[in-house]
Every structure is written in structure tokens, then in C-alpha cells.
Amino acid sequence: MHEFKLIRKYFSNLTNSSKSSLNLNDDVFFDKTNKLVVSIDTYIEGSHFVNFKKPELVIKKVVRSSISDLICKGVKPSYYFLSGSGNSKTFSINNLAKINKSLKEEQKKYNLVLGGGDTVYSNKLSFTVTSVGFSNKIIYRNNSKVNDDIYVTGNLGDSFLGLLVLKNKIKLNKKLSTYFVNQYYKPEIKYSLIDHLNKFATSSIDLSDGLITDLEKLTNKQKNSYQLFFDKIPISKKLNSVLNLKNLLKKNLISKGDDYQVLFTSNVNNRSFVKKISSTKKIKITRIGKILNSTHKSSIIDRNGHQIKINNKGYTHRFD
């Protein structure tokens, strides 16, 4: 069963039609009256991170990917609650010291405070992070308008290549390997964009499951479609060099997830403003497509207008 069907069938009725729950179809819970914004994520070894050989990096990935949910809503994360299940090997004194050091670094980098959590003994390692922020407004997921531009921050695909390196599915020199592995464990979330995103974004989501999968979530409750310009989808110079070196295809790498960039839509009249913010804040922001009405079929086209087919749209949570 697909995760959205599972949520609709078994959990949507439990919200008692609370507006704050956003129909369980957004990244956060938003209590506008109390200016409270909350997100929660769970990470399991083997599914969300390869192994625990680098606990100091795994914990950075866990924290950053969690607060990314708030950041893409234009909300500054203030507190996080961390729960972990593990055993004496995974939570050894040495590993705990490394986790502590990394958490201190992340707290300083993103102005966070640990609010609480829980620890449970288990032979299956996992972490659950609850992120809390305060705001009187957010950028909703399903609020794009027909003819809106589609933008994405940063570059796509670096994290997935890092995963391939960690799984020994691709061999690169040490310098490149280090770069891509770091992109996997330490995604460059766009914290400095928070104060500006609300000024021009009509809808937003963070790229956790993959460009196409997350874009479809962005429009899943609307009668809209999208058109993406394949050649505009941004990748790093390092990834481009690997594509040429290993004879890989860009289309097989740009929608694999774990990028944690911000995908958002904006009115066409905001183009110069978005460009100005991109330049001022030194954040790469690329216009990669547009929102169309439902009479059009969603598509990805190259510079010649030919359709590009991407077989794997991203990660899908299934329970069957």
C-alpha cells in the first residue's frame, strides 16, 4: 500500500478536521493561533543511511534533513527532540562522544536547542527527530498557481552519487569520493533563504524523495500539471565531470532523493526579485519549469522540445 493511501484510509479521520494538521498532506503541523510549526521524521539504518560506521556524519544528516522540513516552509527551526533506538555497540561511549560533538556543531550552525527525546534498547538502529519552530505563516505545499515558475535551490544528484560511492557501486578518486560522500551526509540546506522565501514562494517542499516524486506531491491536491526543462535542472561541475568520465546519464541521477534542496513555485512577476535574492544571499536558485493547468499532461522536455522519460521518479514509501 502506498503511504498516501495508507494515511488517507487509516489516519486522516483522526485529525478531527483540524486545520492545523493540513489534511496530513504537508511536511509540517501548523497551529497558526499559537504560531507553532512542527515536523517529525524517522531514520532507519539500512534504509535512510547505509550504516553507522560514521556516527558523527549520520547524526548530521539526520538533523539537517529533519529541520529541512521547516526551512522549506520559511520557518526557522528553534528546538529539536531526538529519540534513538540502539544497543551497546551502536551507542558505545566512543560513538556517543562523536554524536555529542556533531550535535553541538549543528546546534551552533543552525541556532538550535535540544528540547528532549528518548532512548530505547534495540538491535535495530533508528533515530526520530521532531523539529519545532515558531511563525505566524508558512508556505503551504499545495498552493501553486497556473503559470507559476518552478524553482529549485542548489544542485541535484550529488547526494545520490555519494550513496553509490558508499555502497561501492561506483569507483572514484579520493577527492571526488570525499566530496560526494560529504554531500550525502551533510546536505547544504538553505538556512539563509528562510527570511526571504515567504516573500515570493507560492508553494514549497524540500527534496527528500526525489525531484519528480516531490514535485508531484507539490501538486497532488490540485488540478495542475507541470513542465520541466531538463537542461535547466542544475547539477554540480563535479557531477557533470563524473557523468562524462563514467558515461552516465543525467536523467538517472537527478531524481533519486536526499538532496534536501528547496523546490518552490513563484509568480512570473517575481523573477527579478528571486534573481536578486539569489545573488545577494549567494544561493544558487534555478528556474526549471512552470505549472500548467490540468488540460496539459505533465512532461519533461529538452531544449529542442523533445520529451525526456525518467523511469525512476524517486523514492516511494510502500507497505506491501
How far apart the termini lie comes to 5 Å
Coarse morphology: globular
User: Unreliable runs, pLDDT <50, ≥5 residues?
Assistant: none
**Helicity level, as a percent range?**
25-40%
Radius of gyration computed on alpha carbons:
19 Å
How many distinct domains? 2
Mean residue pLDDT: 93
The major pleated sheet works out as: 6 strands, mixed
Q: How many beta strands in the DSSP annotation?
A: 11
SS-derived structural category: alpha+beta
Could you state the CATH homologous superfamily of the largest domain?
Answer: PurM-like C-terminal domain
How many helices? Answer: 9
CATH topology of the largest domain: Phosphoribosyl-aminoimidazole Synthetase, Chain A, domain 2
Give the SSE string.
Answer: HEEHEHEEEHHHEHEHEHEE
What is the CATH class name of the largest domain?
Alpha Beta
Order of strands across the main sheet:
7-9-6-10-8-11
Percentage of residues in strands: 15-25%
CATH architecture descriptor of the largest domain: Alpha-Beta Complex
